[in-house]
Each structure stands twice: as C-alpha cells, then as structure tokens.
Amino acid sequence: MSEEFPHPPPGILPEGTRPKVAYPESANGAEALDLPIRRARVADVEAILALVNDYAARNLMLPRGPQYLYENIRDFAVVVDEAAGGAIVACGSLHVLWEDMAEVRSLAIHPAYQNRGLGRRIVEHLKAEAARLGIRRLFTFTLSEEFFVRLGFVRKAREELPPKVWGECSRCPKYFRCDEVGMVLDLEKEER
Ligand SMILES: CC(C)(COP(=O)(O)OP(=O)(O)OC[C@H]1O[C@@H](n2cnc3c(N)ncnc32)[C@H](O)[C@@H]1OP(=O)(O)O)[C@@H](O)C(=O)NCCC(=O)NCCS
User: Fold this and answer.
1) What pTM does this model have?
2) CA distance 135 to 132
3) Can you say how many angstroms the Cα of residue 64 is from the centroid of all Cα atoms in its chain?
4) 62 Cα nearest atom in ligand 1
5) d(CA 117, ligand 1 centre) in Å
6) Which of 133, 100, 138, 134 shows the shortest CA–CA distance to 122?
7) Residue 138 CB coordination number (10 Å)
8) Segment 56-89, tens digit of pLDDT
9) What domains, with CATH codes, occur in the chain?
10) pLDDT tens across 145-156, in order?
C-alpha cells in the first residue's frame, strides 16, 4: 500500500515544505518508534482528515469530515514526528458510547510508520483514557482483525453486539455491504 500513498500524505506538511528526514519506504521489521503521543488540537484537524480519508478512499475505514473532527476533537490522540516538520503520522480516537462501553475509531498510522508499535501505543493510550473515565469495555469495527487480536480484542458475532454500536452505520457508505468485524476488549478482565 505504501507505494500508492502520497509521500508525505497531503495535508500533513504545509504546501512546499520538504520533510527534514526521508520517510522510510517500508518500516517492516524496523525498530519500534518512540515518537510522542499527545491529545489532538483543532490545528491538527486537516492532517487527521488527510490520514483517515486516504484510508477511507481505499475502503479501509469510515471517512470523516471536518465537522465530525471539530466536534469530536477531544476524542483524538495523535503521534507527531518533529523530525519530519511536526507531521502528524498517526491518530486514533476513543468515543464514549454508553456507561460501560467506548469505541476505538479512526485509528490510522501512515504507511511509512506502520509495524513500529505506533498502533499498539495509541490503543494503549486510549485504554488508559477509558480506564480513567471508568469505562469497562472497548469496542471497534475493523478490517484489521489480526492487529486487534494481538491487542487482546475478541471478535463478536453481530447478534452479540449491543445496539449502541450501530449508531454510525447509517452514515457509512458500506451500509448495505458491510465487511467489517466487531471486536471487544474487556478492560476489567485485563486488570485481573
Ligand atoms: C492496523 C494498524 C492500525 C496497525 O498499526 P501499526 O502501528 O502498524 O501496528 P503495530 O506496529 O502497533 O503492531 C502491533 C501488533 O500487531 C501486529 N500487526 C499490525 N498490523 C497487522 C496486520 N495488518 N495483520 C496482523 N498483525 C498485525 C504487529 O505485528 C504487532 O504484533 P506484536 O506486537 O505481537 O509483534 C495500521 O496498519 C493502519 O493504520 N492500518 C490502516 C487503517 C486501519 O486498518 N485501521 C484500523 C482501524 S479501522
């Protein structure tokens, strides 16, 4: 997928700015990246949209618009690469659904930064936020089942999922041909 993606992705660096370091062509097997994760700011919205919507254009995740991003900016965490001009290279969000459940949404790592632990670290960051809020279960709809299995999530049959998780589906372009799987992580079990 890396070859098909613009390098760097549009919107991540200001127009005409060249990255100070070259983006690696493939990070497979490379060392874990120790880049900082921080809560998102409104100034990050364009970069998050570019990251998420590049994957959405490939039917890998739900597209997002600026209104959704601004309204839900407090859900988001981002990873910043200062050596690449402060580029936002990964993002993810935690959206509270109900008293006992929150959804991991819009988890996206730029292709040049994949397989270096950033996806896992963002989910760990969101788990800590869920624990702080007193949330007991995390949920996600995804095509990346194996990744979430590695993080302890368990696939659930559609009929096992609570009604609250279907809220976004009516806005999804894949409504009539959904190919994503629902996965749940029980945070209380993890603590035991
Ligand atoms: C899926 C995604 C979030 C993974 O992020 P990442 O930073 O590359 O993953 P990590 O390096 O943190 O990997 C964590 C673990 O998952 C494994 N893993 C990562 N991607 C995987 C995949 N596609 N299939 C199987 N295992 C995978 C890694 O090998 C690693 O395992 P280990 O810790 O046991 O060695 C990233 O590839 C991505 O952004 N994909 C496109 C968008 C997407 O599918 N988002 C998912 C939510 S909709």
Assistant:
1) 0.86
2) 8
3) 12
4) 48
5) 8
6) 138
7) 25
8) 998 888 999 999 999 999 999 999 999 999 999 9
9) 2-191 (3.40.630.30)
10) 999 999 999 999
